[in-house]
């Protein structure tokens, strides 16, 4: 039995947090921050993992720390054998909006073309939607999902509201069956393996 | 709705504990179990050898290698004291002499370099009690004792370094940054309270001067990693770089909390113990009568009497004294005067409950996960 003697936070679940370097976090940020400020921010996450970010910039840093910890060890959220992402409920609450969290996960997890998303809470694990990363397609702004046509933004992560049942998705020459749910379907049309450089 | 936060013990007044006093080298402890001791009492002593030093006779006498050897007046194995003659040479212009710069024993003379190698004389280091207390345990190998005593315990957030003793010197106010120029040679063996922040360069300077310890509100993560090897409290092993450091708030510049700063200020000029690896300061009672109360208390003998700050979970309530642990008010302390009934969406997007806190400066609202209860 585990006895909790203190309140912890999402970052306490990553044993490699102390190995995250400020240089690697900085590469994801599109605003300027002093090296020592960023280094102290990451170190304070180790001391006070339960705290919440106050502004957008702090949230961006937190998402970047999350990316870097997942790069080192993705087992907490990703099951490559079942091609599924299992998001603990506290992550959903801690990293809003959902699309930014999904975007961060897509940035660093080596996902297959279709990945199912589940949310794990104290009542159980529930399917919530899918992430689709179509490989080898031409840039497009039109997709077909369940027989309906949708406009999407090329080079972006798109969220489409889809009910829970299985739907057929067609993008250019790509065809797959995807599961909907509360989150819907995320279609990642961004060119991958392109970590933004510091501006 | 009950909101919960961590409760962190930061100051524990009139705590009866065991203090471990260890010899710094090979020696003997004369104190016996059951003895009453006062701060100035000597418990034992040890011999400390500080290494070797060289004297270049050829250079100092301004002569040749052959002549230098003939000028030596002391020989291998001889004990010599600071200022005593080592070699002399007479010339037409007068007499040149070489004296020993320190107490030592002559080891060898290197004829190829014209250098004398001397070993520093072992120093007798007395071990003082430092506290009013009662001896409860003397290690059979005579290297340490445990003294039952009354102290005020101050717990930091992190630190590094072995336990050291020194006079507490409050150099700056709680929110100040201490510069290298403020730390001078006469602060050797003292425990310096440096305010909100100290740079790595100043820390190294303090260690060079022989400062026993540093208490700071904050520190740069880079400097701490260099000292301790890891930032993760769970992965840190006891390290030491010749000085102990205790940080009371976190990484970066953060004013020392009012609760701790007030205690340190009241202890300015008195003896204290700093243990960086246990993030703890022990400020012994200066009341000789404290021994009377100690006689009525029995403590189990624990040979490693290091204790870390205790953290537990408590419901946040109006009237609780709290410290803020995240910017923009990190390090501030105050009293909870209100708890919101509904959640608020912060500019970061996170929805959470806010608590209203009366601080010494002003009334502020802070998300409840960003506070810790301290009282």
3D structure, described in words:
The complex is a heterodimer of chains A (199) and B (375). Chain A has 199 residues and is an alpha+beta fold. Helices cover 26% and strands 27% of the residues of chain A. Chain A has helices at 22-26, 35-47, 56-72, 89-94, 98-108; strands spanning 78-79, 84-88, 114-121, 124-132, 142-145, 148-151, 157-160, 166-171, 174-179, 184-188. In chain A, strand 3 (114-121) and strand 4 (124-132) form a beta hairpin. In chain A, helix 3 runs parallel beside helix 5 (98-108). The model of chain A has no long low-confidence stretch (mean pLDDT 89). Helix content of chain B is 11%, strand content 45%. Chain B contains 6 helices and 30 strands. In chain B, strands 2, 4, 13, 14, 15, 16, 17, 18, 19, 20, 21 and 22 form a 12-stranded mixed β-sheet that branches. A 7-stranded mixed β-sheet of chain B has the order 23-1-30-24-25-28-29, with no helix packed on it. The radius of gyration of chain B is 27 Å and the shape is elongated. The mean pLDDT of chain B is 91.
Q: How helix-rich are the residues of chain B, as a percent range? A: 10-25%
Fraction of helical residues of chain A: 25-40%
Give the rounded overall mean pLDDT of chain A: 89
Largest sheet of chain A: 6 strands, mixed
List the uncertain runs of chain B: none
Termini Cα gap of chain A: 48 Å
Oligomer: heterodimer
Radius of gyration of chain B: 27 Å
Count of individual beta strands of chain A: 10
Tally the helices of chain A.
Answer: 5
In angstroms, what separates the terminal alpha carbons of chain B?
21 Å
Judged by helices, strands and strand pairing, the structural class of chain A is alpha+beta
Q: Count of helical segments of chain B?
A: 6
- The helix/strand series of chain A, from N terminus to C terminus, equals HHHEEHHEEEEEEEE
Given the C-alpha coordinates, what overall shape of chain B results? elongated
Q: On the 0-100 scale, what is the average pLDDT of chain B?
A: 91
Q: How large a portion of the residues of chain A is in β-strands, by DSSP E?
A: 25-35%
Sheet with most strands: strand arrangement of chain A:
1-2-3-4-10-7
Question: What composes the largest sheet of chain B?
Answer: 12 strands, mixed
Q: Segments of chain A where pLDDT lies below 50 for 5+ residues?
A: none
Residues in β-strands, percent of chain B: 35-45%
